[in-house]
Structures are given as structure tokens and as C-alpha cells.
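User: Can you recover a sequence for this backbone? Please restate the input before giving your answer.

Assistant: Of course. Working from this structure:
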């Protein structure tokens, strides 16, 4: 049954026009929420599109009839291998029991007109999420069913379903990388307030993944943390995106250890810590909140730390202290590493104190294991207070 939402025309200033609008009052337009609309069958429907060699797949559709006048609806594509649109991939992933099975995937792309293209690799990934193919078990051809959603006036309607043939390919599915924010200020690293990607590890200090915390597989959001020493009257900010001072930046709110999120608008100043000491900063990037509290556990200061691994026959190579501003107490160290290296952090000439990890990047801390560096070149940044680390692509 169609929903009818009454709308009112604006009265014009002219007396004559006012009279005309009054005479036409009974014919004011109404907004109608339809029950469906038409998605066109693509011309390539029977052509067996090879997703591996394609870049984009075009689609067109007719605007839903919202009462005879244009509206700013938003459209999204959904795809199924079973012509069933009951449970999405996102809904299945949200079920921690693992019992929910998805039968369709909705892609992130939003369209504002009656045509759009679908990224072929995104479609290939979505189909694999639905089917669970492994590398040796991808079919040569599959039938894909597609429909479109239209969102307007807090209401969602769905188009008809069309089908088309594709040749899928194997996509290695990975969780989204954890969303990392960065500290910058006169009491951070070299103290130069440099806020750009090239300054990560020298002026801009990444926060760390917390062992045992689960992060959103799709967005990479969750709790991240930094533990370190702050001098008296410390001032700093926390930024989400290097180079951007205006959006998603934690500034001060005028209180000691108080934070205010800036997303446009005026800068409210720096975060301030009046009393020097060790503090733990925790940001929940999912709901964008920040807390700062004193770190009460005992902390040891190391004048020097080394890195040993497969690259240097497990001998000692000095780590570089990162915190070098005047009056700094350093607990952060760095070293450039390469893919394939196995390594540990240790005291000079002393294996009695070392930090190891279960094999793998971002692995669980384990003194008997080694950190295995993934492919590429990285800046390894290590925190000796909690043993956390970051790998920043070079």
C-alpha cells in the first residue's frame, strides 16, 4: 500500500501569484512512496563478463515514481548467487556465533543518478564472500542476480531482479587494516609539530593495536592505545589523517587531560597535561571517543635497546630512540626493516630481556617467538613499556 506524505507549496510574494496559488490549493503535489522501480537488464547479460580482465560493469535504471516530480534518492547495488536477498554479508559477519549464512552482498558505492558502474574487483570479492571459494575451486561461469535499493524520505524500496553471467576469480580476502590515529606536539617525538605522512616516526607518533581487542573486519575501527611519558605542562593533539588539522582531530577542551573532537569549525586548542608522568591514551575509533588517564604500573627506562634477527645473524644492531625533544624520556624506538626478516628486540649483549612475538605481523607477544616482517620495506616503531609496535610502509 502506498504511503502518502503531504507537502506544502511556498507562497509567492506577489498578490496575483498568491491568489493563483490559493485557487490551485486543491492540486498541491503529493509525495508518493512507491513499492518498486525498474532496473534495466544490462546489454552484456548473456556475454559472460570476465571479472579478472574487466574494470567496471555499467547499470542503468528508471527513477522510482515518487509522485511525478524528481527527488534526490540514493541508490545501492545488491548481488546474490541464489536469487535470494534475505541476509547480507554484513549481517552474517555481525553474528559472532557464525551460524548466520549470507545470501547477498551489498556494495558500498552510492549512486545519486539513474546510472552507475560497479567495480569488477569489488564484485569479485563480494561473490567470493558469498560462495566461500578457495583458490582451486572457482567456477568458470556463474549466474549473478542483481537488484537495486532506493533510499528516500527514511524509506527503502527495491527494484526488480536482473541476472547476468560472469567468470569470477579468486580474491584473497583480508580484514580491513586497523584504523590508526597519531600523536603530534611539542612533547611528542622530536617535538616539531610536523603533521604529514613523511613525519611518521619522527614527529608524528602512531598509536597502537591493543592485544586481545577485536576490530571491525570491514572498517578496521576499535580501541587503539598509546602509553608514554609526558613532561610537566605537556601540549599535543591527536590526528586521524596526517596533513589534516581540521577534521577528526582531538584538541583540548580547556580542562587538564580534557579532549574535544574537531571535525571542521574552530580549533579549541591543544590537549594539556599539567603534571608530568606516565599516561595511557585510549581512543575508540568506532564511536570516536578519547580518554586519558594516569598509567600506574612501574616503568623501566632503558638507555639503549637493540634489534637482532635473520638480517644480522642474530647479533645486536642499535635501535634509534624516537623521543628527542628537550627533556624527553624515551620509550619509543625505531629501525627500518624489510620483508622476510625474523627479529626480536633485546637488551645489548643480553638475551635475558627480550621481546618476541608469535610468528606473523601484529602477532601476540611471546618471548619464544619472532616477529616475521611481511613483504615490503617498513619503519618498525617499538614501545618498550608495553611491547607494542607498528610497521609503517616506506
Amino acid at each position: 500500500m502506498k504511503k502518502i506524505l503531504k507537502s506544502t507549496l511556498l507562497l509567492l510574494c506577489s498578490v496575483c501569484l498568491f491568489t493563483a496559488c490559493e485557487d490551485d490549493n486543491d492540486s498541491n503535489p503529493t509525495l508518493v512512496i512507491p513499492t518498486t522501480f525498474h532496473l534495466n537488464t544490462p546489454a552484456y547479460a548473456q556475454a559472460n563478463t570476465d571479472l579478472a580482465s574487466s574494470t567496471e560493469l555499467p547499470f542503468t535504471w528508471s527513477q522510482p515514481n515518487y509522485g511525478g516530480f524528481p527527488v534526490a534518492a540514493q541508490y545501492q547495488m545488491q548481488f546474490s548467487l541464489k536469487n535470494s536477498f534475505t541476509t547480507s554479508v554484513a549481517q552474517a559477519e555481525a553474528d559472532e556465533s557464525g551460524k548466520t549464512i549470507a545470501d547477498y552482498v551489498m556494495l558500498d558505492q552510492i549512486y545519486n543518478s539513474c546510472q552507475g558502474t560497479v567495480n569488477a574487483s569489488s564484485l569479485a570479492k563480494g561473490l567470493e564472500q558469498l560462495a566461500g571459494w578457495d583458490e582451486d575451486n572457482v567456477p568458470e561461469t556463474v549466474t549473478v542476480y542483481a537488484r537495486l535499493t532506493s533510499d528516500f524520505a527514511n524509506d527503502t524500496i527495491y527494484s526488480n531482479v536482473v541476472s547476468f553471467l560472469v567468470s569470477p576469480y579468486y580474491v584473497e580476502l583480508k580484514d580491513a587494516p586497523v584504523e590508526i590515529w597519531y600523536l603530534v606536539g611539542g612533547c611528542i617525538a622530536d617535538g616539531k609539530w610536523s603533521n604529514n605522512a613523511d613525519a611518521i616516526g619522527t614527529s608524528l607518533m602512531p598509536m597502537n593495536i591493543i592485544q586481545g581487542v577485536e576490530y571491525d573486519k570491514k572498517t578496521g575501527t576499535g580501541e587503539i592505545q598509546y602509553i608514554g611519558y609526558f613532561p610537566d605542562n605537556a601540549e599535543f593533539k591527536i590526528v586521524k589523517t596526517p596533513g589534516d588539522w581540521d577534521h577528526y582531530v582531538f584538541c583540548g577542551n580547556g580542562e587538564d587531560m580534557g579532549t574535544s573532537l574537531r571535525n571542521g569549525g574552530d580549533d579549541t586548542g591543544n590537549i594539556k597535561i599539567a603534571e608530568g608522568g606516565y599516561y595511557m591514551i585510549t581512543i575508540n575509533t568506532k564511536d570516536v571517543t578519547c580518554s586519558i588517564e594516569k598509567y600506574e604500573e612501574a616503568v623501566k627506562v632503558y638507555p639503549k635497546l637493540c634489534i637482532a634477527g635473520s638480517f644480522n645473524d642474530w647479533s645486536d644492531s642499535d635501535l634509534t630512540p624516537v623521543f628527542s625533544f628537550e627533556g624527553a624520556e624515551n620509550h619509543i624506538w625505531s629501525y627500518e626493516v624489510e620483508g622476510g626478516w625474523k627479529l626480536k628486540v633485546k637488551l645489548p649483549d643480553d638475551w635475558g630481556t627480550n621481546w618476541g612475538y608469535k610468528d606473523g605481523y601484529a602477532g601476540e607477544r611471546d618471548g619464544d617467538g619472532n616477529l616475521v616482517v611481511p613483504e615490503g620495506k617498513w619503519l618498525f616503531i617499538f614501545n618498550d613499556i608495553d611491547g607494542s609496535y607498528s610497521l609503517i610502509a616506506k
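That completes the design. The helical segments are 15-23, 89-94, 120-131.
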